[in-house]
Each structure stands twice: as C-alpha cells, then as structure tokens.
C-alpha cells in the first residue's frame, strides 16, 4: 500500500503534521540513520486483523473499518483472519515489498480502487474461500501473481503477466484479462476482453461483448451479445448463446451456438464464419435457436381411416418451429382431443404423444384440441397420411370389428392367451357391444413384425405357426376356428420366442359379412446374461463385458436390437447398466456406458467402473416399448443382504502426489506435507481406496529429479517415506494422519535442488500402482534449500530499546542470501534464551508470540529493565530439548531453560566448542556506551557470506 517517502515526511508541511506525521517522522528518521550506519534497526510489521485492536481501525461484528491505513510502511504486511472483514474506505495500492495475506473465509472490502498489481508474488497469500469486494477498479498482475478468491468490482484489469485466479469474477462494467492468465471460476461483466493466450475454466457472461484472443480456451458456456474468436485457435469448449458471432481462423465452438434471434435449420445465420471450417462439419460451427417457452403450434397426425369401437392411434406433436422439425417443444403440456374426447399429456422433453382414441359412431370427425395448458403461438395443423393432405378429418367405419388383445409378457412364456373380441356399436351409438355370441367362425390370422420392422422367429397361435412378414408387407394367413362366447370373446393360446412388438391381424369374411381387426403382441427379454472379464481391472479403464438378452427358455432374443428398435420408433428399450453392490460396502461409483447398445440380442462392449474393490453388476429394462414390462438381473449370487463381488478386483489406475500447502520450497531436513490420492484413469479420486474398507495399501515414497529421472548421484536422502494403509481416507491421505516426509542433503550447505516425489505400492506388474504416469500425476516438485536462522547483534545506550533482527537465509550455491520467500517460519517466545552477562542485569523483550517471519525477516525489541551496562547473549532453541546448544566462545549453550521450537533444519553448521555440528543460532545485544580509551574493540563489521 503506497505511502509517503522519507523525504516527503522530512519536509512535510503543516497538513501532514496534522495527520500525525511527526509520530512517523521519528521512526523514519531512525530508519534513515540506521540505513546509513548499517544497524538494521527498522523492521517490517505485520498487522493482523483477527480480533485484536489495530491502530485507527474500529472493530464491530468481526468487521474492521479503517478510514486510511496510514501506519503501514513500505515493507509492512496485512493479515486478515478467517471469518473477519477488513473494510478500507478509500483507494488502496499495495507495493512490491508489502504483504497481503487472507485466510479462508476472510473478506477485503475497498470502497475505492484496489491496486495489487505490483506486489511481490510470494507476499500475496489469498486462500481459497476468500472474498474481495472493490467499489472502484480492481487491478493485479504486473507480476506473476496468484490468488484464490471471489472478486467483485466496478471494473477489472487483470495483468500483463501470467496470473492465476481461483474464484468467480463479477464486474459491473468491463474486465480486461491479460496474456497467459489462468482463471478457474465463472466470469461476468458487460465487455470482457482477453489477450493471447488465456485459459478460463468456467462460464462467461458478457452482456455486451466477449472477445477471446488467439490460442485461448474457455471450458464452459458463454452467454454474450457479440462474440469474437480471434485468429487463430481460439476455442470455446462448450456452448455459446449469442446475438452475433465472428469466428476468425480456426476459431471453434465445440458445442452448439444458440442464435438468440433465431436461425434457419442447418444454418448459422448469426455467425460470420471465417474459421476455415464449414458449418455443420468437423470443427465447424453448428447452430440452433434457443428452446421456445411455448409451442409454436400443435400438429395432429392420423391416417384418415378408422374403425368404430377400436382404438385408433393419433399423434399429437408440440412443435417448436413453423416446419415442426425436431427438436420439438421441450416442456410439458396437456389437453384433450376433440372428436373423441380423449385426454393426453406430452411429457417434458418428449415433444409428442400417441393418443389411443376410440369412437363409437361411424362417420367423419374433425379433430381439434381443447383444454390446453399452454396456448400455442399460431394454432393447430394436421397431417393426414392416407392422402398426404393437411386435413383434420378422419372417417370412422361402422359394423362388426375384431379387437385382438394380448397381455405383454416375457418372450417364450407358456400359457399366454390372445383375446379376440367381436364388437360393434349399439343401435343408438352410445356403447360398443358383442357382435357375435355363442358361435364359432373360421378366422384368418397373420402377423407382421412391428418393432423391429423385420425378424426371423414365428408366432404360434391356436396350434398354428404364423410366419410374420416385414412391417407394411402382406403376410400369409392361416385359418383357425375361433369360438366366441356369449360375451363375444374368444381365446387362443399364443407364444412368441423373440423380443419386440408384433402386429397380429384377424379377418372374418363369410356370407354374413366381413369383420377384421388387429392387435399387438409385446414380449420383453425374460433375463439378461451378464459376462464380465475376469482378473484385476484398473479403475476407470476399459474391461470386456458381454450382455445377452434371453427368453424364458434361455435362448437369445435376436430382435432385441437397439438400432432396429430405434428405426422402428420403439421407446423405452434402453438397458440400464449399473452397480448392484460393493462387496466391501463402499461407494457404488459410476459404470459406463450407462446404456449399452445391443445387436441381435447381444451387447459386447468395453465398460469402465470408476472406483476400487469388488462389485456386482446389474442390468435393468423398464417399461419396454411402453408395455410396463421390466427386467432386472445381477451377477450377485450371495444371499439377500450380501454381495458376492464377482467383478474385479478393481485397483487404482495411478497415484497422484501433491503438496498439501502453497509453499514452493522447503528447507533441507524440514518435513513437508504431501497429499497422495488414489486415482482412476479419468483423473477422479477413488473414494473406496480407504482403510475402513481394507482397500488401501502401504505405499513407499521415493525422490527423483525434477524431470522424473532417478538421480545419478542422489544429493540427499528422503526420510519418513512410508505411507501406511491406515492413512488413507476416501481415496486421499488423511489430514488427521498427514504424510510429511523430509529430504536432507548429504552435505551442508548444498545449492537449491528440486526433487519430484513418487509413490508406489511396490506390487508386481499387473497389480502395481505408481504415480510416474500420466503426466501431471507427480505435482509435488518442491525446491529444497539449505537454510539457517540468524540473530543480528546490536548495541546502544543503556536506556535504548534495541530492535533485534531475526532472519532466515539460504545457500544459493555461492553465498548466503536472505530467504525472502519465507513467510511461514514461526518461533515461539519461549524458545528464546536471553542471558545478561553482568550480575544484577535484567532485560525485557517485546515481540509477538509466536514470532513470524515475513519476507524472511522479523524482529523483537529488547531493553534493560534493571542493572547494566553490559552485553546480553541471545540464542534460539531450534531443537527438541529444553536448552539450546549454541556455541558462545568455547561454551556450549546459554544454560537457560527454554521451550523447544522443533525447527532443527534452521540450525547452522558451525565449528567450535569441540567439534563441527549443527548448533542453535546466537547473537548479542550490548547496552551502555564505553569511552574510547576503555573500549577494547576498535571496529566491528558484519560480513554476510
């Protein structure tokens, strides 16, 4: 956050003095002198907004309100605690050396502009689940910055460097996204522009326009007024809703482009296509108009000729366009067919319904629709198929009719009866009555395949075998004596060994007249045989699976054919493939394909399952061809409530190894947190790889070079590299029992080295699971640094309040350098040993507990509370015991009881006190001014190497 320079303070006028500039002038002047003298007195301050008081800010209900953060210095930092809000009622600019940390669930509100584009990336730590609200302009990204937060602003400028944002972006006006930006979240604004290239994973809503630059990708849905995909290779991996779109060279939309103002069928009227890919061709645009809210019109389809007292199939379609071409209206609509009075409902996404309409009186009827729940835009149309006209008139013929009914049943079922009813209208056309009573007639029967339209197996009826003809063809008939009872009903045994729908035709033609009719026989498979591959299968990988549709006798039903049933407009014939049970009691996961296709009664497919363990598969068929018939089978042969687990075992496809925090480096010997996940081939976690199900395994970690190749000579050793099976929970190592290996260099100091962490279960080929493939599975590639902690020595007057610097350094390979990336190290107050060397002297120290490094540095204040003058020895206990082991002169340790900081990786290796070993760091504070003639030290100079 930007503030006045030293010289601005030094020469400030009255206005600045009235803003308490004098209070800031003194420490600034001290900083100036310190800089000249090399004393290092000035230290960065961390202001934490997490419940405590902060200068000039008010706190109410976890909301800090700060009119102007005037106390912030050029290298100060701000930390906003989880659940707290910091509201600044002016514009804010964060500069390079300042820091901003937002913990998960925190919020930063700036009523003016917020500019963080110049902040050093390691100083910007914004955790997932944070919120940034800006009343003015939000700017970031002059450097390679990253943050995780939902951001709202009046407008946004998102950088010239490769920024990363995990969160949603909402602007009242424009958003400008710079080159190489990666954004994972939804974006909305009025005008959204990008530079080349960017990667956006989320939906984009730009009310005015959206421009996607060369080489950029959006994975999600785009909704905008004007869309431009710039040359070349700009890609929207999803659908786009636009008023207009311009696709430059190789610009692509993988999904549908929905033209908000409409488009002709098979055209893209809203698109200027300069992509080089043709419309409706590979990589080219495909366009549609958005789905309407009401039907354009209704269409009634009929064949023009019907029989009284027999159901006639009338199709009612809710059309979405003037030509009534698919896709049809997707909503639900109900009504009544006038002329017969039959009610109907078109289900959601169905588009049409077949009405079984029955009329008693003979004559012509004009169809219409009434009681509609949704009124159409333009009204009603009809199509009469017998004369290819638009007539809504259907002619119903009277006289005796034969009505054939067969109950739907599994294929090849015995003891099924075909009911043949002779019906006619009564004299006043108010009811249908028996046409024949107590009489036998020779009736000619034939059959036609319906769904599918062809077949091979015959229908057995009344002791005769009927060879069915293809749909629409004339079938050979056989005469069967049919006895009608006093209710005009006859019964004949019927059996069909295949699956599907067959039309059964009947004709009675004798000297008393002619009666004819037809009925449908619907038979479903009686069962499905499930034959999965045996052996070990990797989660998410393909395995062989064979499904066979069978009749009651166990024979294959060849007409259970997906393509043939589709071509015959068959409905509800899709077979659902799923997981019946998990032997170990785990998640059922996801099996694919969810609906396998059958050919000649068999589905031979490549299936996948998403998780690990042993499972049983199930297949089911519901309401086959609308008949209500259902079939369900499983591989489970165990008793009720148990699971045999005949399929599997399934094991992970690979392990994914990631760092469990956001740090990019760790010190040699410092444990670093890892997250190891058992993954399926599709890149999802296998939830069943968990200790509670006894499906997890013991793993071993190894360290290889950053490219994944074994070190020719390893620079160090990886310790604590074993992962137990008990550490896995829901496919991921548990945070309750974290995986924390450490890598220690063989020599001290050693130049920074990146290592890649690899996980393996150590099993033989075929059952081995590793993290070395696919690419990206080994995301934990930390840099290991040799580190040390230093305590600066300071001197001053007896009443001085000395600022004692504490810094972390790392070995570059040539020299020691301040580790500005260290914003993580904390040291408890009790780990510091403060030992005056003069009898009767006592000191007082003031600093945060714990002391936290910011940009590699921190400080605490030390003053004399009694006695003196004299020196004070300072040491930090970085070990695990209750005393430090520093070397002061030839003496080991200060001898004072201290708390263990347990950070031995920051101990420098020193020679002295009888040997060379890692020892705790020490420094000295000297209080009191000695006269020159009594001073033994002529010159002091600190050398950093």
Class per helix and strand makeup: mainly beta
Assembly state of the chains shown: single chain
Per DSSP, the total helix count is: 4
Helix content: under 10%
**Average predicted confidence as pLDDT:** 90
Strand content: 35-45%
Rounded to the nearest angstrom, the radius of gyration is 41 Å
How does this model look, in words?
The protein has 945 residues and is mostly beta strands. Helices cover 3% and strands 44% of the residues. It has a 26-stranded mixed beta sheet that branches. Strands 41, 43, 44, 46, 47 and 49 form a six-stranded antiparallel beta sheet that branches. The chain has a five-stranded mixed beta sheet with strand order 42-51-50-45-48. The chain is elongated. The N terminus is likely disordered.
Provide tags for this entry:
about 950 residues; elongated; 26-stranded mixed beta sheet; mainly beta
What's the short story on this structure?
It is elongated, with a radius of gyration of 41 Å.
């Amino acid at each position: 956050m930007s503030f006045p320079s030293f010289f601005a303070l030094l020469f400030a006028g009255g206005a600045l003095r009235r803003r308490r500039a004098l209070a800031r002038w003194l420490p600034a002047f001290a900083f100036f002198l310190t800089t000249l003298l090399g004393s290092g007195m000035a230290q960065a301050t961390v202001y934490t907004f997490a419940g405590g008081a902060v200068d000039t800010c008010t706190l109410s209900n976890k909301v800090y309100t700060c009119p102007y953060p005037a106390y912030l210095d050029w290298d100060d930092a701000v930390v906003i605690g989880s659940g707290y809000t910091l509201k600044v009622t002016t514009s804010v600019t964060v500069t390079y050396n300042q820091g901003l940390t937002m913990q998960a669930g925190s919020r930063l509100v700036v009523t003016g502009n917020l500019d963080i584009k110049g902040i050093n990336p390691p100083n910007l730590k914004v955790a997932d689940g944070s919120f940034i609200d800006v009343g003015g302009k939000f700017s970031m990204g002059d450097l390679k910055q990253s943050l995780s937060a939902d951001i709202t602003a009046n407008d946004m400028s998102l950088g010239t460097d490769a920024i990363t944002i995990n969160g949603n972006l909402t602007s009242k006006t424009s958003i400008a996204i710079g080159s190489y930006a990666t954004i994972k979240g939804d974006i909305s604004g009025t005008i959204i522009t990008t530079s080349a290239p960017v990667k956006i994973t989320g939906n984009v809503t730009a009310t005015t326009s959206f421009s996607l630059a060369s080489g950029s990708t959006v994975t999600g849905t785009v909704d905008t007024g004007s869309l431009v995909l710039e040359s070349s290779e700009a890609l929207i991996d999803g659908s786009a809703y636009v008023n207009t779109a311009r696709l430059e060279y190789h610009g692509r939309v993988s999904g549908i482009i929905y033209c908000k103002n409409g488009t002709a069928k098979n055209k893209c009227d809203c698109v200027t296509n300069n992509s080089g890919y043709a419309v409706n061709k590979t990589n080219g645009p495909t366009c549609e108009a958005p789905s309407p809210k009401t039907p354009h019109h209704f269409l009634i389809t009929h064949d023009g000729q019907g029989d009284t007292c027999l159901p006639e199939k009338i199709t009612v379609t809710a059309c979405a366009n003037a030509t009534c071409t698919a896709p049809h209206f997707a909503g639900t609509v109900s009504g009544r067919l006038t002329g017969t009075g039959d009610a109907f409902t078109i289900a959601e996404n169905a588009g049409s319904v077949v009405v079984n309409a029955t009329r008693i009186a003979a004559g012509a009827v004009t169809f219409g629709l009434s009681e509609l729940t949704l009124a159409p835009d333009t009204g009603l149309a009809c199509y009469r198929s017998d004369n290819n006209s638009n007539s809504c008139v259907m002619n119903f013929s009277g006289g005796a009719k034969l009505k054939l009914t067969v109950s739907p049943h599994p294929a090849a079922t015995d003891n099924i009866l075909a009911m043949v009813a002779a019906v006619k209208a009564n004299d006043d056309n108010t009811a249908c009555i028996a046409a024949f009573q107590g009489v036998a007639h020779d009736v000619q029967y034939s059959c036609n395949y319906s769904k599918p339209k062809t077949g091979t197996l015959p229908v057995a009826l009344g002791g005769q075998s009927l060879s069915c003809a293809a749909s629409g063809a004339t079938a050979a008939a056989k005469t069967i004596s049919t006895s009608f009872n006093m209710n005009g009903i006859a019964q004949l045994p019927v059996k069909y060994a295949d699956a599907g729908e067959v039309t059964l035709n009947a004709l009675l033609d004798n000297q008393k007249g002619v009666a004819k009719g037809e009925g449908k026989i619907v038979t479903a498979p009686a069962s499905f045989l499930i034959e999965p591959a045996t052996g070990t299968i990797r989660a998410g990988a393909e395995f062989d699976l064979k499904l066979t549709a069978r009749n009651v006798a166990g024979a294959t039903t060849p007409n259970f054919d997906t393509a043939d049933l589709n071509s015959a407009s068959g409905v509800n014939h899709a077979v659902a493939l799923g997981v019946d049970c998990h032997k170990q009691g785990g998640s059922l996961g996801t099996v694919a394909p969810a609906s396998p296709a059958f050919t000649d009664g068999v589905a031979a497919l490549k299936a996948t399952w998403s998780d690990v363990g042993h499972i049983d598969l199930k297949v089911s068929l519901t309401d086959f061809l609308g008949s209500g018939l259902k079939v369900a089978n499983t591989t489970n042969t165990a008793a009720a409530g148990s699971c045999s687990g005949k399929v599997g075992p399934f094991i992970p496809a690979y392990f994914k190894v990631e760092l469990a925090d956001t740090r990019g480096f760790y010190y040699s010997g410092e444990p670093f947190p890892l997250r190891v996940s058992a993954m399926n081939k599709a890149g999802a976690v296998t939830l069943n790889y968990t200790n509670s199900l006894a499906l997890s395994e013991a793993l071993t970690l190894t360290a290889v070079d950053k490219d994944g190749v074994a070190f020719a000579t390893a620079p160090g050793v990886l310790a604590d590299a074993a992962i137990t099976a008990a550490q896995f929970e829901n496919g991921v190592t548990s945070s309750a029992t974290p995986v924390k290996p450490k890598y220690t260099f063989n020599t001290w100091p050693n130049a920074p080295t990146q290592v890649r962490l690899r996980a393996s279960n150590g099993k033989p080929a075929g059952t081995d699971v590793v993290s070395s493939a696919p690419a990206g599975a080994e995301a934990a590639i930390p840099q290991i640094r040799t580190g040390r902690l230093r305590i600066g020595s300071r001197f001053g007057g007896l009443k001085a309040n000395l600022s004692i610097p504490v810094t972390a350094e790392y070995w570059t390979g040539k020299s020691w350098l301040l580790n500005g990336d260290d914003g993580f190290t904390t040291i408890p107050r009790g780990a510091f040993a403060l030992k005056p060397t003069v009898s009767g002297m006592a000191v007082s120290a003031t600093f945060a507990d714990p002391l936290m490094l910011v940009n590699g540095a921190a400080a605490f204040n030390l003053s004399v509370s009694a006695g003196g003058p004299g020196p004070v020895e300072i040491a930090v206990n970085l070990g695990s015991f209750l005393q430090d082991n520093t070397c002061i002169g030839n003496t080991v340790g200060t001898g004072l009881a201290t708390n263990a900081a347990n950070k031995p990786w920051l101990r420098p290796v020193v020679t002295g006190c009888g040997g060379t070993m890692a020892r705790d760091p020490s420094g000295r504070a000297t209080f009191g001014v000695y006269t020159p003639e009594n001073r033994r030290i002529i010159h002091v100079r600190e050398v950093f190497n």
